[in-house]
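Hey, can you fold this one?
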Amino acid sequence: MARNRFAFPRLGRISAGLQLSLLCCCFPGQTLAVAEGGLEYEVKAAFLLNFTKFVEWPPAAFETPNSPFTLCILGRDPFGHSIDYILQGESVSGRKLEVRRIDQLPARQTCQVLFTDGAFKEIRRALSDIGGTVLTVGEGEAFVNEGGIIAFVVDNRRVRFVINQRAAQRSGLKLSSRLLGVAKLVEK
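Sure. Predicted structure:
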C-alpha cells in the first residue's frame, strides 16, 4: 500500500521543519539540494519560517502587543499555496504567523518579514522606504548588494543564503550567531 504523504499533513510539515532546522544548525556547511519544479520554493518557504526562529524583533516592530507576526510577499508570488501549507498554524514568539500578499510597499509595523522575488525592479527605493525592524528577504546576491538583509541563491541546485551584515545591523534586528554561521556573509 502506497503511503499518502498528506495523510498527516501537520506531522509532515513539522517533520520537514525539524529536518531543515537540523540541517541549518547542525551541519553548517550543508545546504539543501532542490529538484526541478516547485520544490525550490517549498525549501525557501521552510527557510523563511526557520529564519524567524533565529531573528529577534523589538516590540516596536509590532503595531500592538497582540498584533500577529506577518510575512509579506511583495509583487509576484513564486510560492503559490505551498507557503500557506508550510506556515499554517505556526507562530513566532507567541504571535500567530500570517502570510499576506501585497502589491505595494507596506506601512510600518505591518510586515515583520518582507519577501520579494527577483522581478521587483524598485528594490533600492523599497528598502529605503520600509525602514527598520523588517527582515527583508529576496533572491539573488544583487538583492543584498542593494541593501536587502537575506538573499536566496541557488548554486548547483542547492538553496543557499547570503546575509548582508550591515543591512541587518541598520535594521535593528538581532540575528542569531547560529543563523550567521550557516550563511555566506557580505558587508555592503
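DSSP finds seven helices and eleven strands in the chain. Let me know if you want another pass with a different chain boundary.
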